[in-house]
Design a protein that fits this description.
The chain is of the alpha/beta class. The chain is built from 15 helices and 14 strands. The protein has two domains: about 230 residues, 3-Layer(aba) Sandwich (Rossmann fold); about 160 residues, Glycogen Phosphorylase B (Rossmann fold, 3-Layer(aba) Sandwich). It has an eight-stranded mixed sheet, sandwiched between helices. Strands 11-10-9-12-13-14 form a six-stranded parallel sheet, sandwiched between helices. α2 packs antiparallel against α3, α4 packs parallel to α5 and α9 crosses α13. The longest helix is centred in the C-terminal third of the chain and has 23 residues. The radius of gyration is 21 Å and the shape is globular.
């Protein structure tokens, strides 16, 4: 029976159970749940998005019922050199040649993946590319344009203004957006392929019914109220600004709550009273941390979805989000389940409200549960993906006649 299922290719820069990152998590979650298809993932040997170092074995393996083909990157990223190249281009813009050089240095530089996809593309009913910015998507779309679906996970960051990305959005037969604001951004910036199908597909969110918050508190010696940030901890995610705002809150507010950081550390942390880094936690512990928090803080100004915000809302924990992110604001306003901050004073006031007013936290939390249940169930999300896949396959068959 399995041999009769149509085949799909997924292309994503990193993949696997130990890999963190929004687009990577989305790709894996969808690949493992589309059991009416046979999915083959084309990805790299990297675990780390900073260096793209080849850490995982090259070749083909089965993971979670999915065939995974890994290819080596030909070079690691030198972050200092890459940043030195990037900053002037972000400020003045880039020619096509400069942008292509930037794309190669950004990585992961994996021409072997692209050539394998070019050779195998006709084995698949559709080829689904996750994230718009990276080398595998840009060159993969050129290698296999005739059956392509793009999940751009786009947000308004400087590289999206480079001219090379016009072709990334002009090629796909279908596009799956993570949120309404993401779709609005893309359509305002790029000309899509005529007749391309599209949908706001989102992601399915599953949360445990009764996370063990007490055990989490005991294990990590958490005695009082706390807020939590979960994800990559780096400057690009707004963490430096968030920590600065928290330091002011800690100075100004008597009985201030702790701020717990969970995830991969990619910046040096200052010494701030009440700021604690717990490292990378197992999923059950992360869920317990979110469930017991007064707020889940989402500090990034650049988001296309924010899985951790949706997980927090689904667990009944309000969001405290960066007002510069249209996506995060949209979640909070449509759900009426979170507050937003534009500066240090607003951060301080909002966190104090959520930490000291249990009735407010409870009301926002209930709104969040309702919002996630109504919009982010896996059955609904997978049906949206299936619709786009069928639309892309129909156009492919039509073009072949």
């Amino acid at each position: 029976m399995s041999a009769e299922r149509p085949r799909l290719a997924f292309v994503v820069q990193r993949y696997g159970a130990g890999v963190t990152g929004g687009s990577e998590s989305l790709a894996r979650a969808v690949a493992e749940r589309l059991d009416d298809y046979r999915v083959t993932v084309f990805t790299t040997c990297a675990r780390d998005y900073v260096t793209w170092r080849n850490e995982l074995p090259e070749g083909t393996a089965m993971e979670g019922g999915v065939e995974v083909r890994r290819f080596r990157s030909v070079s690691e990223r030198d972050l200092a050199s890459f940043n030195a190249l990037s900053e002037p281009l972000y400020a003045r813009g880039a020619s096509e040649a400069e942008a292509l050089r930037w794309l190669e240095l950004q990585g992961p530089h994996c021409p072997g993946l692209v050539e394998a996809l070019r050779t195998a593309q006709h084995e698949f009913e559709a080829v689904v590319f996750f994230t718009c910015l990276f080398y595998p998507t840009y060159w993969g779309l050129k290698a296999a344009p005739g059956r392509s679906v793009l999940v751009p996970t786009a947000h308004d960051e400087p590289p999206l203004r480079f001219p090379i990305y016009e072709s990334v959005f002009a090629e796909p037969l279908a596009l799956a957006f993570c949120s309404g604001p993401e779709e609005t951004l893309v359509r305002s910036r790029f000309r899509l392929r005529e007749g391309a199908a599209s949908a706001v597909a989102g992601i399915g969110v599953e949360v445990p019914g009764a996370p063990d918050v007490d055990s989490f508190r005991i294990r990590h010696d958490v005695k009082g109220p706390y807020a939590v940030y979960a994800g990559r901890i780096d400057e690009g995610k707004g963490c430096g600004e968030m920590i600065g705002f928290y330091e002011r809150y800690r100075r100004d507010v008597r009985g201030a709550c702790e701020l717990l950081l969970i995830g991969t550390l990619a910046m040096e942390l200052p010494r701030v009273p009440g700021l604690r880094y717990l490292g990378f936690l197992p999923e059950a512990e992360k869920m317990a941390a979110l469930a017991g928090a007064r707020a889940v803080v989402c500090s990034s100004p650049y988001e296309s979805l924010s899985i951790v915000l949706l997980e927090g809302l689904g667990l009944g924990t309000p969001g405290l989000v960066n007002a510069r992110s249209e996506v995060l604001k949209d979640h909070c306003r449509r759900s009426n389940a979170g507050l937003e901050y534009a500066d240090a004073a607003e951060f301080e006031e909002c966190l104090d409200l959520l930490a000291t007013r249990p009735s407010l936290r409870a009301a926002l939390g209930e709104n969040g549960r309702t919002y996630v249940a109504a919009n982010y169930g896996w059955r609904t999300v997978l049906d949206r993906y299936r619709g786009l896949l069928k639309a892309a396959a129909a156009r492919t068959r039509g073009a072949a006649r």
